[in-house]
Amino acid sequence: MSTIDNLHKEWRSLQPLKPEIQRRMDRQFMFDFNYNSNRLEGNTLTYGQTKLLLMFGKTEGEALFRDYEEMKAHNVGLEMMKRAACDKERPLSESFVRELNSTILAGDFYKTSNDGEYRYKIHTGVYKTRPNSVITPSGELFEYTSPEETPSMMADLISWYRDVEQKGELSVVTLAASFHFRYIRIHPFEDGNGRIARLLVNYILFRHAYPMIVIPSADRKNYLNVLGQCDKNTGIEPYKGANATMEQTKPLIDYIAAFVEKKMTLAIQLAKGEITTIEETKEENVGVNVGVNTGANVGVKEYIIEHIKAKPNISAKELSTLLQKTPRTIERHLKDLREQGILTRDGSDKTGYWKINY
Q1: What is residue 170's DSSP assignment?
Q2: What's the CA gap between 158 and 154, in Å, rounded?
Q3: Residue 237 vs residues 140, 185, 224, 247: alpha-carbon distances, Å
Q4: d(CA 299, CA 322)
Q5: What is the pLDDT of residues 239-271, one digit of tens each?
Q6: Please, what are the domains in the chain?
Q7: What is the sign, positive or negative, of the torsion defined by CA atoms of 168, 174, 177, 178?
Q8: How far is CA 226 from the centre of its chain?
Q9: Among the listed residues 174, 12, 199, the one whose alpha carbon sits nearest the alpha carbon of residue 92
Q10: Which CA distances in Å does 110 have to 116, 124, 126, 134, 307?
Q11: What pLDDT, in 10s, does the model give residues 186-209?
């Protein structure tokens, strides 16, 4: 944590950022966080569709209507979380967590059971009324806190957080990671728990003047493995998981710390003008220092393809604006993709469209 502490001091010394740098950083984070946090939970929107939706309000390509609605709602939740984190007079509360859940899920909706036998209503913003569980890789049923115990455990969690935050005995990263794990072991809502956990991690970071982080969807396997290791450390009893010690949650603390350290390094470079953008889903920024090997390589070419999937008639000029790259850079990548046979262009530059050949 000493490295993070030193980086944090340097980061604070660079505040406030130039308005243009702050806007660029905020916009990139908006795209990356909303896309990845929702993608981790199965949202079908591509990165290109996400950017078009959040930047222009457009819905291009094929995707579930609810996925569009939840992506927009999740962005509203992100802004709501940032405002709450900035309000130092307003401590974290259960009512805020419930409001955040209702916001990101865009109201009540119906889901179909896993066996397809029946439909049931998800009541957002209220604690669960039916048990929730997951099937572990070994095929075992892993139960979260029961509906009857959830209100008291959530009250204890919020009380614990307020007390520890006020005392200041834990590092901010340790507090954020510990809260994430304890919250997930309660799993208080019928849907949206993972997204709420990641929003509240960033609530804690942002509240204490740390750059917010993105857990890439490409790193899903490692993310779940880390949570699974913490589960093994605490055992299956929900109460023990909801009161996990720092030693038991160390795998998640180390995991979150790696992302915080890398993000802080990139943010400092951005503030100093050494880089022009932060792309947290690129391979070199995924799972740093935690033994991750995702095989992901989400660079400019991959983003170009994602945008073309969402809008086949997109122009090079639009790609330049969306990716914040020069027209010459976009043209060079398009040329490479055409020479590799990945892209072809049907029709003229003005009225034609792109075809993806794989």
Answers
A1: S
A2: 6
A3: 14, 9, 18, 17
A4: 14
A5: 999 999 999 999 999 999 999 999 999 999 999
A6: 2-285 (1.10.3290.10), 300-356 (1.10.10.10)
A7: negative
A8: 16
A9: 199
A10: 13, 11, 15, 19, 30
A11: 999 999 999 999 999 999 999 999
